[in-house]
Amino acid sequence: MFRKGRRNWSERKGASVARRMLRTLRFLTAAAAPATLAGCSDGEGFSDPGASSLAPGQSCGSIRQELDTLDRKGTQAKVEAASAGKKLAPKDKSDVDRYNSLLNQYLGARCHV
């Protein structure tokens, strides 16, 4: 009988913690919403910088073509390995760096839109 009462106390304590966390989360959400909306309506601050320009001689098509070439060489798996912190050979690291650079240019120029 003592164990049964103790288990009920443990369950009540867990429910209490869950209610407290939910209340805290609601408070944080309620506090963050007006600040977020105020930032959006301001018109200043976090505005969209627009598409970045590509280097002379580059186009969205040429960048996409080079990204596809690197994809066919298996660079995507190397990018994931590098992101996971695994050691790469110098050639693989240069492929990963080139891939990331091209992807940043591609997305920055809004070629994907």
Task: Quickly list its features.
2 domains; single chain; flat
How would you describe the overall organization of this protein?
The chain has 113 residues and is an all-alpha fold. It has two domains: 1-43; 60-108, no CATH class. 73% of the residues lie in helices and 0% in strands. The protein contains four helices and no strands. The protein has helices at 2-42, 60-72, 75-83, 90-108. α2 (60-72) runs antiparallel to α4 (90-108). The model has no long low-confidence stretch (mean pLDDT 79).
Sequence-ordered SSE layout with sheet pairings:
Elements: H1 2-42, H2 60-72, H3 75-83, H4 90-108
Main pleated-sheet profile: none
Tell me the quaternary state. single chain
Distance between the termini: 66 Å
* CA gyration radius, whole angstroms: 26 Å
- Give me the number of helical elements: 4
SSE order in H/E notation?
HHHH
The average pLDDT is 79
- The proportion of strand residues reads under 5%
> By helix and strand content, what is the structural category?
mainly alpha
Summary?
With 113 residues, the chain is mainly alpha-helical. It has helices spanning 2-42, 60-72, 75-83, 90-108.
